[in-house]
Fold each of these.
Amino acid sequence: MAAIDDVRARLGGWAGRLLASDCAGFEDVAPVVFAGDGAAPALVARPRDAGEVAAAVRAAAETGVPFAVRGGGHAYARYGTVAAGLVLDLRLLGGARIDPGRRVGVASAGTTAGDYTAAAAAHGLATGFGDTLSVGVPGLALGGGIGYLSRRDGLTLDNVLGAEVVLADGSIVRASDDENADLFWALRGGGGNFGVVTRLDLRLTPTTVVTGGLLAFAPDPTTVGALLAAAAAAPDELSLMVNVMKAPPAPFLPAERHGTPIVVALVCHSGSPDVAGAVLAPFRAAGTLLVDLVRPQPYPDLFGLAPNQVGTWPAQRTGFVETVAEDAAAAVIDAVRTAPTPVAVLNLRPMGGAIARVPRDGTSFAHRDRAVMATVGAVSPAGAGAADARAWVARAADGLSLGGAAYANFVAEPGAAAASDAYPSETLRRLQEVKRQVDPGNLFRSNLNVLPAEAPAAVRA
């Protein structure tokens, strides 16, 4: 019996939830958000609880089939699928539960940021994520989470209080500061390397109306530096994302700007509305303002600014910078102008604030002292101009000296050096030791993979 047929036999009782390519509904569950080479999995298993997750994990481990775990299916590197293997699709484990008294939210494995944010907002609460509602909460939280509340509340992973995890041997454990503390440290930054997270407990913070939205500027290189300087001087309640990009054909932008470079600032002030105007003044004064859509609004409404990227192919390089000098900003603006795809962008996310106050070794996200997370990306229709997009990204990223460090959640093409870029050497060694303890066979490898440390000689003997 072939290994994949063995898996199918072991999970044969999952009526309607174990789908092969010859099953009705397979085409609905096989794809992930970002297009790739078109290679499909052999089986998609859709568990309903942690016990079924454990059964699928044991089946994969004991048969040796290629194995991937999918939450929201939103990874740029397409970690949530594997050619001719078994995909564990967690989206039936969706749903968020909010405990407003304890200010704790529970996100099951398939919960999206949108589902959770809406449930929390009903109680005037929030946990900060990134900038897109369709991402899966565990996948985002285990790698970082830099978004609209990060300078006030820290990264998403800084607000993880505990996790339920299915390990490679099928056991179900709890990880927190008080239980399996080494595993808990590794999960918060180390991604899906250590098991299948079936539940996260997350800290909630009172958040109702914020003052935020979009500011669009003419493409002046000085504007980029002025926005970053304003963010560095702002209180923690102000979080910012800057995009140097081609203007989309949006009705709120002047038609003559469509398809040409602009500088966009996405701002969120989550402090008192009484001081928001003064805090935002330096941002509005950063350049020639074309559009000002910043206003008081419910926090979840900010996420409507994110584009729909389903079915697109991303080329991307990510890293960290201290600032973007005027000549570098000018070069990026010129590069965007001649980019081979309609969507080409330099995305800048200032850090600092609460992010920087967590000790460097407090979690396995070890880039606390960096000023700005930077990403150069180009998005194109699947298979159309992929090589040109990749080459453009490489040139633009080299111009910014992006390299030697990486934000794990934004790695699009992981290679041999990806883990050492995402994790400094001391962090990587510690992650490898935890990996050796909980997944020595590297079952969980469809991710930014951390290899298990080699067992000590006495153990090998």
Amino acid sequence: MSQRRTTAILERAGLDDLVEVLRAQGRTVIGPTVRDGAVVLAELTAASQLPFGWGTQVEAGRYRLVPRTDGAAFAHTTGPQSWKAYLHPEREKLWSADRTADGQLTVTDERPPRPSYAFLGVRPCDLRAIAIQDRVLAGGRYRDRDYEERRSGAFLVVAECTEPGATCFCASMGSGPGADEGFDLALTELVDEAGHRFLVRVGSDAGGELLSAVAHRPADPGTDTAAHHAVDAARERMGRAMPPVDLRTLMGGSLDADRWDDVAARCLTCGNCTMVCPTCFCTTTEEVTDLSGDHAERWQRWDSCFDLDFSYLQGGPVRASARSRYRQWMTHKLSTWYEQFGSSGCVGCGRCITWCPVGIDITEEAAALHDELAERLRQDERTEPER
């Protein structure tokens, strides 16, 4: 049997071993933990920092942390952060420049050594998002070498989803709740009469080597079956779904839809959806200087297509209205991303719905656009003259 198909069982204590071994390898372990009333991503020094016994309740524009009685570690939905915060940081110094007393200029490249990351608890939707950012930032003509350095050594431990939230729609985007490839280890958490344990699948040679270094036992048929059933059941309990249509055709046929005015009346153009999205990648650069003018720095930071200045050209912004900016974001995410990168830019994580201050729902907007386009086509058929 190949390592890719190897399955095993980790007991609760096995997570402690997993974190210890990863740290002993010199890796910075990042995983979910509870802080400030949310499940956030942070560096972990022990598995006990995982959100055992905590779940989440989410809806459009609403997020709540709630206690659980079963002690599960990964029974929560995605939080406000995604792994791009570590692979593609929101703000990063590129270089600094100093002018000496004799007028000489010294430029310093501000690229420190990159940590060797281990991501523990990556959801399948976020695993797909990482693959999408790999294509955008490291798979084309213009490669981001800083991203490549962070990504090349990252070790990915997936936590398959068994508790989808009300804003999750990964099943309709083909990105979850199970993981098929792209991981080093995949965990499926089970808490039932047989105890608290994790079914482990190996997805790489590095994953197989790590598994051999932690306490585990062979998977039994009952646990294997229970894990598959838990993931399949999550697929049937998705809180949202995209309409089952060709989204590229839908977006292309809806550029002048009236629905854009409806969403524009609600949208604050705050950019929250782009900040929490695990695939949005746009950046800008800015220069700052001290009061003397002898020290300057260039920083790269995240930018958003909802920012009025994002499309600014001489004479003004290309997309001056909220309608045009929301349409740009949604059309790019669901349609024109294919032309650029060969896939959808949406993985169905639901963050843009949860963290929108006014609760705008991308699945609801897609369904409304579909209904409007279908009605327009019906009207055209009724008014078409007979030949």
Amino acid sequence: MLTLSILGFLHDEPLHGYELKARITGLNGHVRPVSDGALYPAITRLEKAGQLVRHRAPGSGAVPRQVLELTDGGRAELTRRLAHPAETEISDQIRFFTVAAFLDRLPDPARQAAVLRRRLAFLDTPSSFFHDSGGRPVRAEQEPNPFRRGMLLVARASTAAERAWLTDTIAELETGPAS
């Protein structure tokens, strides 16, 4: 997801490492913080792969800063990753939200809708955090533990809201924006 975030943020404008790290942190927040030990090696890998370039620009002080810019190869990789997200990027909510944050960079509404349909299909697959002794999913109303019951109720509400958003957005992508 770090690679996708780097490519996605550099799609719009060149950034220096500190700005890039701040934007990734803003997207992921405390849930999945990014360290310099992860960010800069990822930048180096993308640079070696020809997906971004570095150049020097004047800094706010006397020291010039390294500015990162996406190449045509980087734009193509971003498009590929957005059009064909891995299964974990569909099934893991935080990973999916990272894909969704940059999905507008995928220029074809039909391909955008296809990605959203994959997420909707995943959400429509029955699942539960907890199962009874017979292996059956536990419904929130049947869960005696108030903390687990809360988890189930929050997950249900969140999933219902996400399903509604996905359904509405897919319809909008397929028919054009509502007037």
